[in-house]
Amino acid sequence: MATRKNPTDDLLAPITLAVGQEDLLLDRAVRDVVTAARAADADTDVRDLTSDQLQPGTLAELTSPSLFSERKVLVVRNAQDLGADTVKELKAYIAEPYEEITLVLLHAGGVKGKGVLDAARKAGAREVACPKMTKAADRLSFVRGEFRTLGRSATPEACQTLVDAIGSDLRELASAAAQLCADVEGTIDEAVVGRYYTGRAEASSFTVADRAVEGRAAEALEALRWSLATGVAPVLITSALAQAVRAIGKLASAPRGARPGDLARDLGMPPWKIDRVRQQMRGWSADGVADALRAVALADALSRAAGTTRSTPWKSRCPLPPPQASRGGTLRSVPLTLPLTLPLPL
């Protein structure tokens, strides 16, 4: 969960600095400040701006003294992307903030826009760390924290099962923990989580593509259903499929006996991907690659057309030929049909 990097617990400190790239934690940092401000003054005025909305002069306008001295919360997202003139104005304000205004700066961290970070820290801003949780151990700690925050007891096995089932999306993990707490009485154990979420492994567009080109039809279909159910755009899936099939075609046409390092350089792939594609290309024929690319191109065109056309849900089929070797050693392709739920034009 988001953690404070300094001892202050004052949610209404003049400046709060939320640093990181985990959207859920950034949103929670903003929510906590807004909730505290409205608890202190129900009429608090909240302004939530992106970096491109905070143009030179806008900050001065938003922070100008109010006739009625109303409390205000000013949220600036993607502060690392602010223009030079706006940064200059922001630094001047940070040095002398107004008592009735709470400024919340959301910054991705890193070198870009570091001047804003340094100025806020120098001014003693309340800081909240919102790092991207890339490690399973971090997500496991997050889930445990969610159950503690909700005042419920969950076994270590239950927490691990939930992380394994849901994957890396913190919003999904938080939602699942809240749902379990609402539906289940007593201690939440592994069996309870299993009844709700077993089989729901995270499926990205690349997972769908990898399983499809490997000919693992059942797993590809399962990953596809979960991807669509969790909001992955069809165009991302078709894009991943196209990349996977093109990679097979590129590697298949490369000179035999070439060293992995040379292949990686010539084909524009990292060495680890060369190894993976080499495994995936077994059984693919040139005709199979061509057929697959045409099928993916059709599905991609349909999904993109649906984005600009009045549409209704229909079933589109994207046939991918997974590899299969026929007798005698001749390679041929057998169609695998992946049903993509795409909005098609009326």
Report the sheet-strand fraction: 15-25%
The ordered string of helix (H) and strand (E) elements is: EEHEHEHEHEHHHHHHHHHHEEEE
Assign an overall shape: globular
Which residues form runs of ≥5 with pLDDT under 50? 3-7, 308-319, 321-346
Helix content range of the residues, please? 40-55%
User: What's the mean pLDDT score?
Assistant: 80
Overall CATH class of the largest domain = Mainly Alpha
Task: Please summarize the sheet with the most strands.
Answer: 6 strands, mixed
CATH topology of the largest domain: Zinc Finger, Delta Prime, domain 3
Quick overview:
This protein has helices spanning 23-40, 58-62, 84-95, 114-122, 136-149, 156-166, 170-183, 190-197, 205-213, 217-229, 234-252, 260-267, 271-280, 286-306; strands at 3-4, 15-20, 45-49, 72-76, 101-107, 126-130, 311-320, 323-325, 331-333, 336-345. It is globular, with a radius of gyration of 26 Å. It has 346 residues and is α/β, with parallel strands linked by helices.
List keywords for this structure.
346 residues, alpha/beta, Rossmann fold, Helicase, Ruva Protein, domain 3, Zinc Finger, Delta Prime, domain 3, 3 domains, globular, disordered N terminus, disordered C terminus
Describe this structure in words.
This protein is α/β, with parallel strands linked by helices. The chain has 3 domains: 3-130, 3-Layer(aba) Sandwich (Rossmann fold), CATH 3.40.50; 136-197, Helicase, Ruva Protein, domain 3 (Orthogonal Bundle); 211-345, Zinc Finger, Delta Prime, domain 3. The chain has 14 helices and 10 strands. The strands form 3 sheets. The chain has a 6-stranded mixed sheet with strand order 1-6-2-5-4-3, sandwiched between helices. The protein has a two-stranded antiparallel sheet with strand order 7-10. A two-stranded antiparallel ribbon has the order 8-9. Strand 4 (72-76), helix 3 (84-95) and strand 5 form a beta-alpha-beta unit. Helix 6 packs parallel to helix 8 (190-197), helix 11 runs antiparallel to helix 14 (286-306) and helix 12 (260-267) packs across helix 13 (271-280). Residues 3-7, 308-319 and 321-346 have low confidence and may be disordered.
